[in-house]
Amino acid sequence: MERLSKDQYYLQVAREIGDRSTCFRQKMGAIIVRDDQIIATGYIGAPRKTKDCLERDECIRNKLKIPHGTRYEVCRSVHAEQNAIINAARAGVSLLGGDMYMYSTNPKTGEKNDALPCFFCKRMIINSGLKRVISSLKEEEIKIFLVDEWAKEWREKDIFDDRHQYGTDQNIRDGLGEKPL
Q1: Does the pLDDT of residue 141 top 90, yes or no?
Q2: Distance in angstroms (rounded) separating the CA atoms of residues 41 and 168
Q3: Distance, CA of 22 to CA of 28 (rounded, Å)
Q4: Phi, psi of 11 (to 5 degrees)
Q5: Residues 6+ apart with CB under 8 A from 158
Q6: How far apart are alpha carbons 6 and 149 in whole angstroms?
Q7: Does the structure show a pLDDT above 80 at 36?
Q8: Which of 36, 121, 137 is nearest to 83 (CA)?
C-alpha cells in the first residue's frame, strides 16, 4: 500500500472543503497548515448571514457576462483563500510561516481547475505572513509557490505582469472573452 505525501493529503482535504462552495463558476477549498496542523479552512461562499448564489439561483457575474479573473467587486462571494485567512483571524490563530493548500473544481463537470489566487487574494496571502501556497493544477498534480517570490516579482515588475493568474483558461473555455489583464 502506498501512502499519500503530506502535500497530496492536504490537497485532498482542501478538495473536500471546496465541496461546500456556493459558487456557480468554481468550487474551491483552501486550508492553512502550520507545524503540520490544519489551523484554518475556507471555501467560496457569501458573507455570513447573507444569501449565496445557490439560494438566489443565479450568478450576477454570469448574468452580466463578466469574464473570470476580472471585476471581483461584482460578486456576492468571499474567496476560499480569504475565508481561510478570515477564519484564522476569528479564531485568533497566527498564520506566520504557514502554508496554504488550494484545490479547485468546475461545479458543472467536476473536472479539476487550476487553483490559483486572484490579485486580491495574493495581496492578502503576502500580508498574512504565509510562506508557501500549494495549488492543484489541471496539467500538474501540485505546484508550489513561495510567497516571498511573489512579493519579489511584484517589486521588480508590477502585479499585472504576474505569470500565474486565475481566470485565463476559463474565459476562453466559457466563451466570456479574452484573457484578463
Answers
A1: no
A2: 25
A3: 10
A4: -65, -35
A5: none
A6: 22
A7: yes
A8: 121
User: What integer is the mean pLDDT of 142-152?
Assistant: 93
Question: Residue 93 class from Cβ within 10 Å (0-12 exposed, 13-18 middle, 19+ buried)?
Answer: middle
> In a 10 Å sphere around its CB, with 0-12 CB exposed, 13-18 middle and 19+ buried, how is residue 106 labelled?
middle
Cβ neighbours of 135 (radius 10 Å): 22
Spatial CB neighbours of 130, under 8 Å, sequence gap ≥ 6: 32, 95, 97, 98, 99, 100, 147
> What's this model's pTM, rounded to 2 decimal places?
0.86
Structural Rg of the chain based on CA atoms: 16
Q: Is 53 left (phi over 0), alpha (psi -120 to 50) or beta?
A: alpha
What one-character DSSP code corresponds to residue 91? H
Hey, what's the cell of 175?
466563451
Report, as an integer, the average pLDDT of 121-136. Answer: 96
What is the distance between the alpha carbons of residues 159 and 150, in angstroms, rounded to a whole number? 9
